[in-house]
Amino acid sequence: MVTISPDRQAAQAAAAASTALLTDHYELTMLQASLRSGAAHRRSVFEVFARKLPDGRRYGVVAGTGRLLDAIAAFSFGDEQLAFLERTGVVDRATIDWLAQYRFRGAVRGYAEGETYFPHSPILEVEATFAEGVLLETLILSVLNHDSAIASAASRMTSAAAGRPCIEMGSRRTHEQAAVASARAAYLAGFASTSNLEAGYRYGVPTVGTSAHAFTLVHDTERDAFQAQLAALGKGTTLLVDTFDVAEAVRVAVEVAGADLGAVRLDSGDLLWMAHRVRRQLDQLGARDTKIVVTSDLDEYAIAALASAPVDAYGVGTQLVTGSGAPTAAMVYKLVARAASPGPDAPLVPVEKRSPDKPSRGGRKQACRRIDADGVATAEMIRIGAQPADPDSRRRDLIAPLMTNGEPVRRATLEEGRELHRRSLAELPISATQLSRGDAVIPTVYEYGDELEHEARDGWAR
Amino acid sequence: MVTISPDRQAAQAAAAASTALLTDHYELTMLQASLRSGAAHRRSVFEVFARKLPDGRRYGVVAGTGRLLDAIAAFSFGDEQLAFLERTGVVDRATIDWLAQYRFRGAVRGYAEGETYFPHSPILEVEATFAEGVLLETLILSVLNHDSAIASAASRMTSAAAGRPCIEMGSRRTHEQAAVASARAAYLAGFASTSNLEAGYRYGVPTVGTSAHAFTLVHDTERDAFQAQLAALGKGTTLLVDTFDVAEAVRVAVEVAGADLGAVRLDSGDLLWMAHRVRRQLDQLGARDTKIVVTSDLDEYAIAALASAPVDAYGVGTQLVTGSGAPTAAMVYKLVARAASPGPDAPLVPVEKRSPDKPSRGGRKQACRRIDADGVATAEMIRIGAQPADPDSRRRDLIAPLMTNGEPVRRATLEEGRELHRRSLAELPISATQLSRGDAVIPTVYEYGDELEHEARDGWAR
Q1: Which of residues 140-159 of A touch B (CB under 8 A)?
Q2: Residue A362: what pLDDT?
Q3: N or C terminus: fewer CB in 10 A for chain B?
């Protein structure tokens, strides 16, 4: 029997609870160097954005914000973490002492979870000292890049399914913890449920599932397996009918369950042809209400191709958890403004790098979606400068506070994010939900606020 | 300031430590149904294999085994997990009582971490009761599919780098926990180091890193930033030189650091052209030993394309953590044999499904690599049946015990896995390391043992 000593279990648990080392070595060396130079204490604004959407995609979906706020709250260095940093010489004693006291005390603003986004949308803003903000780069990007990639793929799938429920079942094809986050992100973007139990436990995502081929094979006959499943789970269950011969399995399934069998599942073969054949057979057997669930390497295109088939639900695995060709959202975290000097009241100045193919646009941003008279989004408006634009019925503000002085403000629920996503997607031009490749469905437009124009005349760094 | 109450922290930690819900709903419903039918207690053999390699790949790399053994040890249901299952009605009372007592008591055998694999290689075998084995499906596949996908990509990258060190730095482009596993898998497959601190803490992977553009931008001038970094980290550090103008930055870098500056980093632009230009400039400035590190969306092809450039190290991010186009290894977990009846001494019979495009091959497997007189691998030999083949100098056995009666046997270290990978790759035909697309570099060949032939004559299920 496997046993873990209580001590080891406690140490593992404590280590797992801290997110402080889920970061890159260079953030700590930058911290050390900036503590020496004094730049560590300069008020700074970091921004998360994506230079582009994945190839051919018309929009992206922001996801992970809720998880991120938990992860920032758990970002503190315990004795074990500090001992590791000392033992390996990652940073010096002064930096370790600073880290021992570290808690994030800054402000976070950003797009709500479930919101759609476009190239250069300022998805998240962190305002803190340089030291406090620079430490969070990797953690913030890991959470947002992963979850947004999954939600962006999931949203296309639920659109393609056109109201038929999608079931997330890709856990086995991704890292065991990424699986939980994937289930959450898929639900945010309209999936009905997941196979992942931890996602049910942690986030309340509805979970579903009945049986695999192994269950049929461990019994002496398929009939034995069906009877066992029906006895345990009732007639509303879903029987897997493609272990041996589908037509025979469907016949036996209805024979043992009766015409009120809940559903059958097809997991192989030509699903379009097979769904038609099975529907006809079920109807002939009187099982007119028995549903058909299909689950074999589906992506948004395969789902769309089954639109005319008598399919009642789609189970989506690999393609969901791998972002359907775009497993990361390619968001970056850039310093866009910082205090002109170390003092707490020093004015912010925009900063930007000028690397050839990776330019960034300095200055703190506001963002809103411009809406036309019919309620359709026409542009992602990004305003650079200190003041937000005047309130306007034809603009929907996109940025809201998420943390103030290191404390989370009211947290949106996953259900609220789901509803926001539904509304945000419905507001986009209809071509957003076409699967064909194209550019972002609305353009990103920059506006320049008064204050920034003044700063810009001074050469962007006064 | 963010504070988490000790209670909440303890609950989070306990929840994080259990891996029991990192599984699919259907595994628990299969458990419930098989407890009812009695099939739960049949001795069973499950096998992990991949039907194919990712498109165009010549070999795969097994990774995750070490992590998996820890995850199986932590697979037990605590009060919180059981309360969740009861509250949501996932399974009935009898099943919950069974789960409360669950510890894996079976045997696990398999390929060692770092070993190369091919289509249908029997990478892992779990022998246990059906109930004990079926519960582990998702966890086993999540760990092996993720880590093997990353290691398989990493191995191609280190081959392409031809001895120049590769640095893993993709944490920000994948789930925050997948990032840690990715760093581990990359190290296994020959990467020299990682940026991910948690991978250093948990697994002892060497960590490296110096600074980002934000560090330059938070200072008033690039010179200030370089001076701050040198003061904190010494002359052996790596200065990032592409924030504004590379030539000017290199000039300033050598001016402030002297000719014994450790390295400069290029993170944008045409790296081939830029590396040549910077090398010439460094040499002219007398900094002949200053190294050049390049880091911008590299994959194995980009690395190979830089072979002739004066580059000293490659930093690889996005393409590593996304498996360079193959983010999952597509391994499956199939029941291949089970007892003819529930008793503990009942003989095993092979089982296999017959789904149209996803057949499986029943029966317990042995595997070895056939080696020719020059020490080059010529085939992946899979023997179906109870007896291993006679020992033979021209075969290398691939399967070793990993757990017996639920207890891990001696665990290979990560360094041993690294060494095994180096040897296993060196043993393959040289074309394995060509980047061009092709089939598996050696064929998979089946042999049939005596006992199985007997069983097969009986119709595969006596």
Answers
A1: 141-143, 145-147
A2: 92
A3: N
Provide the whole-model pTM: 0.94
Q: How large is the C-alpha radius of gyration of chain A?
A: 26
Span B49-59, average pLDDT: 94
Residues A353, B141: C-beta atoms closer than 8 Å: no
Q: How far is B254 from chain A (nearest CA, A)?
A: 18
- Point out which residues pair with A331 in neighbouring strands: A50
| Helix, strand, coil percent content, chain B, rounded in steps of 5 | 40, 20, 40
| Angle separating helix axes B176-188 and A137-161, nearest 10 degrees | 110
Determine contact: B129 vs chain A, CB below 8 A.
no
Task: State whether residue B58 is helix, strand or coil.
Answer: coil
CB contact (8 A) between residue B1 and residue A406: yes
Torsion of Cα atoms, B93 then B94 then B97 then B102, to 10°: -130
Q: What domains are there in chain A, each with its CATH number?
A: 6-135+330-457 (3.20.140.10), 151-325 (3.20.20.70)
Give tens-digit pLDDT for B401-420: 999 999 999 889 999 999 99
Interface of A with B in 89-128 (CB under 8 A): 90, 92, 103-105
Tokens of B54: 């990712």
Q: Residue B178: list chain A partners with CB under 8 A.
A: 146, 174-175, 177-178
Among B17, B176, B328, beta carbon nearest to A142: B176
Which chain A residue shows the shortest CA-CA distance from B333?
Answer: A214
Write the pLDDT tens digit of every residue in A294-348: 998 899 999 999 999 999 999 999 999 999 999 999 999 999 999 998 777 899 9
- B124 bridge partner residues: B48, B110
Question: Do residues B282 and B250 make contact, with C-beta atoms less than 8 angstroms apart?
Answer: yes
Mean pLDDT of chain A: 92
CA distance B317 to B170: 3
Contacts of A170 (CB under 8 A, 6+ apart): A179, A182, A316, A317, A318, A319, A320, A321, A322
Rg (CA), chain B: 26
For residues B156 and B324, the answer to whether their CB atoms sit within 8 Å is yes
Cβ pair A84:B201 closer than 8 A: yes
Mean pLDDT, residues B344-356: 86
